[in-house]
Amino acid sequence: MKVLGIESSCDETGVAVYDTALGGARGLVAQAIYSQIALHAQYGGVVPELASRDHVRKTLPLVHQTLDEAGIAPGDLDGVAYTAGPGLVGALLVGAGVARSLAWALDIPAVGVHHMEGHLLAPLMQDDPPEPPFVALLVSGGHTQLVHVEAIGHYRLLGETLDDAAGEAFDKTAKLMGLPYPGGPQLAALAEQGVPGRFRFSRPMTDRPGLDFSFSGLKTQVLLAWRDSDQSDATRADIARGFEDAVVDTLAIKCERALESVGCNTLIVAGGVGANRRLRERLQVMASKRRGRVAFPPPALCTDNGAMIAFAGALRLEAGQRQGLEINVVPRWDMATLPAV
Predict the structure, then answer these.
(1) 214 is in an annotated binding site
(2) Which leading EC class covers this enzyme (predicted)?
């Protein structure tokens, strides 16, 4: 089954073709991603109306480009998958409208995909993928969640952030120290130059039971440290390192607790922050000590992309799940309500 996937939940337009006959990483036949970073940089964040308009401009050209790279005609497709939520409602409607119209014109099935399920399943696209049950850490600019995956489509939330997501905390912390938009990757790169231990910040909510997260207080600690410092380049790098270490340690501590709570030794990590090098190293060490396994998607598939939507959609289309002709999106969507595959 050849499935076209369209991702348009926020500020990146992603299109991909996944072929289930090939399977694994080989099944990703072609993909294209267009980022709106330059468009939103002058505003310091995503402007929803501008994001929607840019999706209108880029989605169809990217569909044509991806099909050309895959070497297939539209009539060769067996299904279309699109992000139905969560996300910005206008942006979601653009992708859903294009996908649903293509499916109608080609007389093939379409399915709406949960954005976070797409992220969660992305590590399974590799060869020798982990099998459920496992614990998933979904960590991005909009979400920080620990989920027990009993089977694909059977998701139980173990813990989530009570305020800022980890990626959001990266972006906001970078902004308050004067780093350019988008700040998260800039801060992580700067942390590589920092001296570990010069600034030590708290590991929020690790001194009490539970699997929830909170990063807003950590952000405030960084603000105070930066305000009272000499604000030199070296100090900026040292604070960035202290902040990153605090976030990485917090995520690792909570992941280990989650694995213990469900009696599991397999962890998968997905979402934009999952590309962070220090987080990957820390979780690899943790998994090795437990004689367990941790799986990540390739860094290019950690951020929003069409490949994860095509893959997740292909699994649901093969299970016989379909959408009607109506165009529906769900800006807020609990993943636990998804049907089993």
Answers:
(1) no
(2) transferase
At position 328, the amino acid (one-letter code) is N
Residue 224 identity (one-letter amino acid): L
Q: What are the tokens at 257?
A: 């607790």
For 188-241, the pLDDT digits (tens) are 999 999 999 999 999 999 999 999 999 999 999 999 999 999 999 999 999 999
Tell me which residue of 20, 92, 116, 12 sits closest to 310, measured CA to CA.
20
Length of the chain counted residue by residue: 341
- Are the C-beta atoms of 319 and 341 separated by less than 8 Å? yes
Find, among 81, 65, 119, the residue nearest to 303 by Cα: 119
Residue that the structure tokens 């220090």 belong to: 278
Q: Is 115 annotated as a binding residue?
A: yes
Sequence-ordered strand ranges (E) for 20-117: 28-35, 79-85, 110-114
pTM: 0.95
Are the CB atoms for 245 and 281 separated by under 8 Å?
Answer: no
Confidence of residue 295 (pLDDT cuts 50, 70, 90): very high
45 is in an annotated binding site: no
54 assigned to a ligand binding site: no
Residue 171 assigned as binding residue: yes
What amino acid occupies position 217? G
pLDDT at 127 over 90: no
| Strand (E) or helix (H) holding 158 | strand 154-160
Give the domains, in start order, of the chain with CATH numbers. Answer: 2-121+301-337 (3.30.420.40), 132-296 (3.30.420.40)
Is residue 80 part of an annotated ligand binding site? no
- Work out the angle at residue 31's Cα, subtended by the Cα atoms of residues 181 and 51, and round it to the nearest 5 degrees: 40
Residue 138 known to bind ligand: yes
